[in-house]
Design brief:
mainly alpha
Length: about 180
């Protein structure tokens, strides 16, 4: 039994973690608070992300080690700074899982208004909504427990949807 994901699964894991649920929530709240000028922040953010990606690509070709992103400041500065960054990356990944589960419940609530009435109270999750988030977290945990193959299969489907939906929305915006 092979323990490694195939190339598509590995790319899907990376893309799925990049294209989280935040792209919809972030654009909604940014437009709500800043109005049309929020588009400028997205352009500035895209340019900064491009520079950071090019920098990391260059460093990754120079230092071909596992876990380069958490080792980066250990290489450039010292082991103490590297440890702090590695812990902060671990912490951010740990926090993103419940955040994605919460976003899943919020998306379901928006997609099915009858569910939203049961899960939300005044725009916030009620006890039943929080219970639904815990249920989704248990599903995530079981997928991880069952192994990389099960996780990769589910992630391939979810990441494919995460890539198709923004592309379709972008095409719709371009043609309208």
């Amino acid at each position: 039994m092979e323990k490694k994901p195939n190339l598509f699964s590995a790319v899907s894991i990376g893309v799925g973690s990049i294209i989280g649920s935040g792209w919809l929530f972030a654009s909604y709240f940014a437009a709500q608070y800043a109005g049309p000028v929020s588009i400028l922040s997205w352009i500035i953010g895209a340019i900064m992300s491009l520079f950071l990606a090019l920098l990391l690509a260059e460093i990754a070709t120079m230092y071909q080690v596992t876990g380069l992103f958490s080792r980066l400041l250990t290489i450039s500065h010292n082991k103490d700074i590297g440890f702090v960054i590695a812990v902060s990356i671990w912490f951010s990944i740990t926090c993103s899982v419940p955040s994605e589960a919460t976003a899943t419940v919020e998306y379901l609530g928006n997609f099915y208004p009858s569910i939203a009435k049961a899960l939300f109270l005044n725009g916030h999750l009620n006890w039943l909504g929080i219970l639904a988030v815990y249920f989704i977290l248990i599903i995530y945990g079981l997928l991880n427990y069952w192994g990389i193959k099960a996780l990769a299969k589910v992630n391939n489907v979810v990441s494919t949807i995460k890539m198709i939906v923004p592309a379709v929305i972008g095409i719709i915006f371009i043609f309208t």
